[in-house]
Amino acid sequence: MVRQAGVAESSGARPELSAADPALVMGAVARPRWHRRLRRIATLAVTIGAAMTMVLASGAPSFAAVGTGSRFYFSGSTPNWSCGHNVWTGSTHLVFQCDGNLVLYNFSGIAIWASGTNGSGVDEVDFSGSMGALMLVKNGSWYCGIGAWTNGTFGQSSGSLALGGFFEVQDDGNLVVYNSVSKAVWASDTVGGSDSSKHGCVTYYN
User: Fold this and answer.
1) 3-class DSSP state for residue 150?
2) Complete DSSP assignment for 34-85
């Protein structure tokens, strides 16, 4: 028979314990030593976990990962983005802010590219299959676009250089529009998290 610490061995009768007996804890028989050690270890683990969470939270940008990837096809099957949607990669975060601005931040929290549409009333991002571009939407209508067109053909699907293509937030920090054969036709030029000179999107007029 295995003898538990703090419990007297008997033929079946419970041991008599007085109020002064150290085996009494809140009216119950004291737990074995290994049980108390496990509780101390569990408490320590929770404390360490909470501390790690605080350190990580204070040292990382305040953007949550949304979605499962960084490639978005120009297609009606790709869901539109609404205010607050964001995507992060190994070096950057792309955020559709609630002020209407689409902004790319590096890991230092510095904006390195933006659509420049803050305060414009833009409320959605549309990966338009008919336009072959990243279109910013205001009250249900296209407001401006990010992509590549032949000269003078913006607003005409026949002039888009990326029909059937996709938009990608790359791990190297670059935003890139690719055509249907995966050839880059537009880029933000933010490789390595560097500031871009290409800010803004092309205004669309109905």
Assistant:
1) coil
2) HHHHHHHHHHHHHHHHHHHHHHHHHHS-S----SS-SEEESSTTSPPEETT-
Do the bridges between strand 24-25 and strand 28-29 make them parallel or antiparallel, or are there none, so unpaired? antiparallel
CA 83 to chain centre: 14
Is the pTM here over 0.90, yes or no?
no
What are the backbone dihedrals phi and psi of residue 96, each rounded to the nearest 5 degrees, phi first?
-95, 100
Question: For residue 142, which amino acid is it?
Answer: W
| 31-61 pLDDT per residue, tens | 556 555 555 544 444 443 433 322 222 233 3
Residue 100 is which amino acid?
A: G
Residue 185, classed as helix, strand or coil, is strand
Element (DSSP H or E) covering residue 33: helix 33-59
The token duo for 87 is 């995507």
Q: ∠ CA 28-31-37 to the nearest 5 degrees?
A: 150
